[in-house]
């Protein structure tokens, strides 16, 4: 009995030692993560929320050191840095990478199509998550969508935009390839500027008007100080998605349990971000009004014309790139499928009812 007990204790000690070594090995996983957002843009709060949640949930297996945008490298360089493994992860807005592939554009936002709930539904239940992996996977990365904001503010400037006729000849700061194409057909011209350059561009008249983000983010960026007029709604970005790019090798080094924890944290942050953004948008709108900002709402006829042009642009883009087509085909299929329930639950439904969708058969013809 003594020998058996001694063997058992020795085996137990070995098991504890092995577990300690394994735990120590896991504890050595330390990531450096940055983002496209500097500290003075409130969108960085979405990145921070996910990092803090991960560091709290994962324990000793992984520690993420987070650095604000611009402190390690320019925001434009985070894609390449994550792809090559110079850093393990970076927060982003997918639309910034449309120069690599137009497929990134609808992964980031849509013109006059998805709202925030549509993106949430599509990502979680209608195949969107897999498409993010397919696109980013071509660049040696895993992607976790973890932020959604509803439609953006609209255009801010020092000349009123009361209708789409007022866009004729205007120079507008605008992000996104599809968005720029719609604007061009409306008579305006797209100006590309980093978020941190918009304040001075409006102040100095470099642009006639500009968009950036939601009212809460825009107010904290100081746009009330330089723009007297606000044109709504934000048709150019009917919702936006943010997330974290993770180097494939860094991801593969994690245990399956830790990978799953990162996914859970992303889903939790995504839900939080939508509510956080809506609260910030409400408070920001109140403050813009208190500061005397004059708001002009586009008519239903104007929005219908924007929708028609948007549909043409979506089909045009689909016929230029198969992956672009695949993503929009998935999005429009979701809207058609969800409509079976959505449309009979009006006015209590959670999503936008769209009667004029891009023609699915024309997109299919380009796939």
TrEMBL record:
Q: Name the domain of life this protein comes from.
A: Bacteria
The cross-references to Gene3D superfamilies, in alphabetical order and at most eight, read: Bacterial extracellular solute-binding protein, family 7, Periplasmic binding protein-like II
Signal sequence, start to end: 1-27
Q: Name one GO cellular component term.
A: tripartite ATP-independent periplasmic transporter complex
Residues the record lists as binding substrate: 152, 173, 211, 237
Question: What keywords does the record list, in alphabetical order?
Answer: Metal-binding, Signal
Q: Which GO terms describe its molecular function?
A: metal ion binding
Residues binding Na(+) are 212
**Which Pfam families does the entry mention?**
DctP (PF03480)
Q: Which GO terms describe its biological process?
A: transmembrane transport
Name assigned to this protein: TRAP-type mannitol/chloroaromatic compound transport system substrate-binding protein
Q: Which organism does this sequence originate in?
A: Halomonas cerina
């Amino acid at each position: 009995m003594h020998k058996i007990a001694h063997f058992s204790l020795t085996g137990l000690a070995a098991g504890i030692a092995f577990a300690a070594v394994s735990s120590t090995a896991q504890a050595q996983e330390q990531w450096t993560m940055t983002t496209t957002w500097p500290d003075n843009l409130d969108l960085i709060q979405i990145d921070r929320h996910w990092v803090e949640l991960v560091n709290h949930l994962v324990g000793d297996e992984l520690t993420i050191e987070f650095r604000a945008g611009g402190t390690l490298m320019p925001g434009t360089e985070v894609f390449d840095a994550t792809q090559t493994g110079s850093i393990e992860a970076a927060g982003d807005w997918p639309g910034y990478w449309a120069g690599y592939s137009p497929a990134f554009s609808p992964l980031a936002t849509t013109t006059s199509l998805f709202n925030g709930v549509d993106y949430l539904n599509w990502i979680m239940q209608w195949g969107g998550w897999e498409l993010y992996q397919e696109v980013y996977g071509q660049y040696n990365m895993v992607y976790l969508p973890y932020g959604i904001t509803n439609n953006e503010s609209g255009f801010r400037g020092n000349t009123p935009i009361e209708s789409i006729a007022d866009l004729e000849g205007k120079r507008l700061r605008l992000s996104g390839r599809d968005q720029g194409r719609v604007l061009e057909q409306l008579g305006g011209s797209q100006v590309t500027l980093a978020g941190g350059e918009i304040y001075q561009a409006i102040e100095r008249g470099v642009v006639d008007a500009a968009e950036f983000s939601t009212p809460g983010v825009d107010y904290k960026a100081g746009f009330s100080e330089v723009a007297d007029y606000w044109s709504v709604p934000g048709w150019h970005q009917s919702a936006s998605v943010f997330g974290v790019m993770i180097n494939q090798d860094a991801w593969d080094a994690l245990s399956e349990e830790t990978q799953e924890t990162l996914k859970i944290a992303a889903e939790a942050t995504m839900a939080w971000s939508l509510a956080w953004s809506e609260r910030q948008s409400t408070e920001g709108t109140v403050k813009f009004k208190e500061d005397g900002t004059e708001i002009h709402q586009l008519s239903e006829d104007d929005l219908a014309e924007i929708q028609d042009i948007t549909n043409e642009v979506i089909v045009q883009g689909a016929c230029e790139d198969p992956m672009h087509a695949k993503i929009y085909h998935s999005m429009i299929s979701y809207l058609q499928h969800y409509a079976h329930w959505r449309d009979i639950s009006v006015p209590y439904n959670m999503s936008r009812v769209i009667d004029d969708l891009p023609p699915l058969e024309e997109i299919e013809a380009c796939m």
